[in-house]
């Protein structure tokens, strides 16, 4: 009987969650989930993070805060590029502006979005169309126009990443009643299915696509609805793990999906709601 030991090859996992030198673009990045994600990307090693939203002052304020982070790389920088993601011409201008600073993009977080609450009988056509256009069509166009930059340095071993922001409202039933959000719920279901289609379309180009489906996170867009549905304390108690989303929940998930750790994850949606959607589905 042989006593020879089998060869064991151990891999170096010390940088498995690092993003050193990567270039990222975050739409809707001046506040809320987008800003938390941008903070995580910089702190994980990204060299450049482009922050875009409609308001120039908000973009600059966000970048000032990001550039003051004490634990980012010394030369890492957040760069403001204001643009209105609801307009194709503005998306094309955004790509052109980013191209002035870099010949490639490694990470695109298509996070810009909007909502509208109104009871069913009076829900306006214009609001429904605005939400669907920004949350779905504009996401598609943003990914389409950034595709050349995403492909520029992507390889099978080091693919570029596209992330989209969905919602638990796109996986279950959204808000009903006086502040009904049918357009928002439909748009978030649509954008997550769009992501699954693009995951197959773009994988041969070495671009991986995945989605996030957050539950309630305190933010400017969500705070009003949270108050109307019982407030932070009530909503936290109704969540299986007893709390709402925190900045690190978004930042860590985004970093994971953009890192070497998620190099074989494609077409998936990570739900961030503490298990609440599952709990609501119990018989």
From TrEMBL:
PANTHER family: 7-ALPHA-HYDROXYSTEROID DEHYDROGENASE, OXIDOREDUCTASE, SHORT-CHAIN DEHYDROGENASE_REDUCTASE FAMILY (AFU_ORTHOLOGUE AFUA_1G14540). The keyword Oxidoreductase applies. It comes from the Eukaryota. It holds the Pfam family adh_short_C2. This is Gluconate 5-dehydrogenase. Keywords: NADP, Oxidoreductase. Belongs to the short-chain dehydrogenases/reductases (SDR) family. InterPro entries: NAD(P)-bd_dom_sf, SDR_fam, Sec_Metab_Biosynth_SDR.
